[in-house]
């Protein structure tokens, strides 16, 4: 038979070009890229063998039969393997490859293994192909079953493509369907017209489509520096953590860019970033470079030798000036060094640890290195564990938020008409976590609004559950609100809607706002306070004296009360401090603000506060924060003993 293999030769040349283009750039080392690279080599080898076998069959009498036998066997073997590789590639893209173990893998691989065995014994059985008595290439009785095998795997490919459509990107889904159509069409045409070698052409066209659409590496690269981007870093770290690969991480923050942008403009800054990216891409083999954000980059290294080489290269390069816009500029780097990423449980935790470390580095001198190890690493890990525990608890996945109440003493009523609502967090593995520890972490993690809402809901539920007691007490619960709440659109309406859903009287709630919130968002806060006060709520300025706010700005807000930090009370031996404190109290009284002093711990402090006619006193001297049951008992005992609770 005379084959028409010109199409295959063209496809072979084109596939070589595609393969060279794929490997000329440093591809992201994920499973999809690795498998696609392997598929390219299999396809090239398959096409080369197809062309050779066609030539050998056409001129069978010119070549040794053993050579024809080896080439044809290898060709059919790769043709048998290729569709299975495509199925695995689809499973990798869909993130389902790890699901195919045991029985599933055995069922999928059985037809391929069966035909491979048939090919191996073909020289003895002549079931697939052989040379007859007159030296003519002849198909054996099982030859057509190879076409059926290919058709079977194409059907399996269609099945998994449709099944996992939601896990595939739209362009991936469409490309795979086009691939299947081309291969099936080529197989059918070649089955009825054996002289037309079109399967290899269809494979080349399909791989080209995959290369252009699915294997487009631009979405993994930072557009400015041309190193891998942040999303690629997360994928890389997840892969390393899943495989438990021991690798090290160097993260750098490059200083001096602000001067570049201010003197030469943003484009000059981009040019400099491109130079930095070029330098990072040229680091020793075995180092993978990523851009975190801005001027922060990360390098992942797998060997101690390469790690030392990278650190040396960084020191040497940044000791030299960088040239941009005709100017020589000196840059410096702060380094975060993580010896083993497997200390953390997730890629996100590693990134969060780097952010925390960079924050600490910025507080010191330039050009510093911080090794993430020992107690420092343990402290960061605990913060991340608390963040994760908070998130899970808010989602109902474990952990316990508990309200406790600290009664506040009224010097005028000699009673406890106010109580501050405090939140405690308990976790099975972390134990009891202090608010001073978890509240800042919740603010950084963007969870504080959920926590504020939780406290308001629990406070309202407490009032509803104890209606008779609350009616007799006629007291007020103070609830803390974070600064971020006031930047939320429609916050005042949402807050009132939440409280109203419990049918709670707004007069029973007083919201505490920190001094920081009062200065950072003064205008927004004033609008929210005015609207909520019109509905019956009151507001207290919390922790006055701990910040560095503009006093006039704070006073200009319509607070009902101000809570003075105990630090203003403790330095009684200083005449100036006492004079300042006395005048501060008088000023607030002239402003008609109720005054609460916090942290009163002994009788002397209580007597001094009482002598200054401070309205309310809060502290351990009068009552420790009480769990809900103890707080209820506390109120019952005070109500049953009469009004005077002195």
What is the β-strand count? 19
In total, the number of domains comes to 3
CATH superfamily (homologous) name of the largest domain: Rhodopsin 7-helix transmembrane proteins
Continuous helix count: 25
CATH architecture of the largest domain: Up-down Bundle
**Mean pLDDT over the full residue set:** 85
CATH class of the largest domain: Mainly Alpha
**Sheet bearing the most strands, described?**
8 strands, mixed, barrel
Give unreliable regions as ranges: 642-646
Question: Which strand order do you get reading across the main beta sheet?
Answer: 10-11-13-14-15-16-17-18
**Radius of gyration in whole Å, from Cα?**
37 Å
Q: Which bin fits the share of residues in helices?
A: 55-70%
**Given the C-alpha coordinates, what overall shape results?**
elongated
State the main characteristics.
single chain; 646 residues; alpha/beta; Rhopdopsin 7-helix transmembrane proteins; Alpha-Beta Plaits; TIM Barrel; 3 domains; eight-stranded mixed β-barrel; five-stranded mixed β-sheet; 25 helices; 55% helix; elongated
